[in-house]
Amino acid sequence: ASTCEEVPTLTSEERGGLKKSRDVFGLDFGATSAKQPAQPASELPSGRLFHAAAVISDAMYIFGGTVDNNIRSGEMYRFQVSCWPLCPRMWGPVLSPTYLFFMQKEECVQGHVAIVTARSRWLRRKIVQAREWLAQKLEEEAPLIPKEASGTSMGRVRLPLLRVAIREAEARPFEVLMQFLYTDKIKYPRKGHVEDVLLIMDVYKLALSFQLCRLEQLCRQYIEASVDLQNVLTVCESAARLQLGQLKEHCLNFVVKESHFNQVIMMKEFEHLSSPLIVEIVRRKQQPPPRTPSDQPVDIGTSLIQDMKAYLEGVGSDFCDITLLLDGHPQPAHKAILAARSSYFEAMFRSFMPEDGQVNISIGEMVPSRQAFESMLRYIYYGEVNMPPEDSLYLFAAPYYYGFYNNRLQAYCKQNLEMNVTVQNVLQILEAADKTQALDMKRHCLHIIVHQFTKVRLWPHCSRPRLSWAQPSSLSPAGHCQTSPGDSAAHPVWLHGFGLLCRSQSCPRCAC
């Protein structure tokens, strides 16, 4: 948008004779706003042809198409891609950093203890050493604190940021490495540019030092794909200087190819190579080494999901900084991971952090079972959604309450319940659907109860009332029970209008 200027009007004669125009007009666009529509019930689209599809961010959108005998459709469907948005959000300013890395030139790189200790054993040892040094320093300074400063107020004093010195790295390559730790991928720079290839070579050197096999493979794939006639000598010389044997071998094999060798030795950069490297190129050309196929499997390392799974199962027990209480039972956890996955925890840790570091877990007014709580933690830490139908009962409303940043858990819980609802558990699922206002799930359960009533009423539900048929004539126009008080017939609210009666002491709706 540029400055507001009145657009000149042209007559019909001027427009007819105008072939080319050099006039520039500035357009002012008014402020626009987007209104989010209400979330409809999830449903599967019908089969269609000639539709458009696009993948945007973490979802795939299907628009239009031809359905039902060449009828054009204007519907749009959104499919949630199986994704795990934990670490990309942690890479951003989700929660305050818990440590600072210091490089060679006293440059700082911020981060969170939880994710780094989960991904790298080498950095985990560095952080443990820094924590021990900080604890020793605080113990030495404790006698110097005045007595009036000690007491209950000391528990709320914010500890200084943990400082970890890593003199083996420079800031820019280390930032790329940190991006990999948080997202399990690296954002490749421009392919073929010498500066970018040298940057990834420095990252590759750090990956070897920190024993990150997965990052090693990513860096090697990019470097080997980026080597060409313009940068092969620079990359080869840098690989020799950094003692990267595999990359050096790749560059030497590239140089001595019949289609490359004459062009490479005629370049000016070849004249400035070190003498040992020139000798090695000439010898490689005269007598190529025999190729020996390796039968050893390539170690691709562990993925982000595998590392976070191990971290939840015990590796990260020494780095927990929050306690989750489920019906009085404590479960240690990590604030950075919870805040990255849930807007509920993010808001709590930013503004309403409990002083004792303990958080009671519930889903609205409902306290989940221990097994369901563990399933929710697995989803938070590493995106695991495989769970029994009983856990899906409790976690169906968890995405709404905790504000998860995608609907994958809710979609799976709904599918899990619909696929596994039986006469044995239909009443439990119906009750959970009624509490969470899942109307489509509620209708599905009531449909099963009505059509499978003879089986449902005979199933011995623990502490559940036994159901029996009621004729529609026994219901008044207002929906109240018309049976006599001595008959002890009662209707749960969610069974009224479906021709079902419940045998118990009194009816909670009409008190008959």
From TrEMBL:
Protein name: Leucine-zipper-like transcriptional regulator, 1
Name of one Pfam family that matches: BTB
Domain of life: Eukaryota
InterPro entries (alphabetical): BTB/POZ_dom, Kelch-typ_b-propeller, LZTR1/Attractin, SKP1/BTB/POZ_sf
Record keywords: Kelch repeat, Repeat
Domain BTB per the UniProt entry, residue ranges: 320-389
PANTHER family the record matches: LEUCINE-ZIPPER-LIKE TRANSCRIPTIONAL REGULATOR 1
SMART domains in UniProt: BTB
SUPFAM superfamilies membership: Kelch motif, POZ domain
Gene Ontology CC entries for this record: Golgi apparatus
